[in-house]
């Protein structure tokens, strides 16, 4: 089974802090993704990466950056956290498409509160 | 642009009743995949099914069945003889068959099974 591990289930930070959310997958997947989930809005893609050191903006990249130095690890960075970034953050990974896009496998999520 | 609509925000049924979750989508791609994910209270998204646009056969897996109708752009999900463990938020999602790794999610349907 694919295992996607997010470093924290719950995190509380203060406005203006630099926040790191870490995600590790153990299935040698090429693609990794960061989403945020808010009530009534579903899941929205922040950034994704299809290879080491590669990244692509999703639908809502403002206020975020990412880092992928190793294939198995994809970090989401909030450079200066703000209260509107309080949300549930979900990491996912998938195989590079070969016979069509493969299912994304998700971690347990990090519930981030910015005070 | 792609869009997935789950018009039912919340559904409650009594245990053992059947329930259908609706999903309607819009896409200009001629080939694409559709997915259903389950998000139990613990938070992680669990992959349930991937259906490609070539194949309009309905699928059954135990108590779960999926009805894909390309003519009406719908991919509905039915749970037969519902159980309390089925209580979760269910997401429908769409992605092109090749390329563009952006998975477009609906806003989800919260299903509550009443014992």
Verbal overview:
The complex is a heterodimer of chains A (115) and B (115). Chain A has 115 residues and is mainly β. In chain A, 0% of the residues lie in helices and 51% in strands. Chain A contains no helices and twelve strands. Chain A is globular, with a radius of gyration of 13 Å. The termini of chain A are far apart. The model of chain A has no long low-confidence stretch (mean pLDDT 92). Chain B has 115 residues and is mostly beta strands. Chain B is globular. The termini of chain B are far apart. The mean pLDDT of chain B is 91. The chains are: A mainly beta (115), B mainly beta (115). At the A-B interface, β6, β10 and β11 of A face β5, β6 and β10 of B.
Determine the most extensive contact between two protein chains.
A-B, 29 and 26 residues
Beta-strand content bin of chain B: over 45%
Mean pLDDT of chain B: 91
Low-pLDDT ranges of chain B: none
Oligomer: heterodimer
Query: What shape does the CA trace of chain B take?
Result: globular
Return the string of H and E elements of chain B. Answer: EEEEEEEEEEEE
How many beta-strand segments of chain B? 12
């Amino acid at each position: 089974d694919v295992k996607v591990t997010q470093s924290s289930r719950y995190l509380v930070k203060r406005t203006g802090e630099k926040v790191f959310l870490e995600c590790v997958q153990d299935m040698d997947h090429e693609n990794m993704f960061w989403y945020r989930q808010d009530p009534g809005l579903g899941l929205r893609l922040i950034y994704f990466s299809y290879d080491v050191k590669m990244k692509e903006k999703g639908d809502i990249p403002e206020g975020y950056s990412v880092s992928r130095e190793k294939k198995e690890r994809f970090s989401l960075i909030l450079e200066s956290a703000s209260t509107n970034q309080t949300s549930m953050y979900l990491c996912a990974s998938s195989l590079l498409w070969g016979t069509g896009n493969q299912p994304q496998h998700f971690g347990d999520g990090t519930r981030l509160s910015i005070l | 642009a792609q869009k997935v609509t789950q018009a039912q925000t919340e559904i409650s049924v009594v245990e053992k009743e059947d329930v259908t979750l609706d999903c309607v989508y819009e896409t200009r791609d001629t080939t694409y995949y559709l997915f259903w994910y389950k998000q139990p209270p613990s938070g992680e998204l669990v992959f349930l099914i991937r259906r490609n646009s070539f194949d309009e056969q309905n699928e059954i897996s135990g108590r779960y069945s999926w009805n894909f109708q390309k003519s009406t752009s719908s991919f509905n999900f039915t749970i037969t003889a519902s159980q309390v463990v089925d209580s979760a938020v269910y997401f429908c999602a769409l992605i092109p068959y090749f390329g563009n790794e952006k998975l477009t999610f609906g806003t989800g349907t919260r299903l509550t099974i009443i014992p």
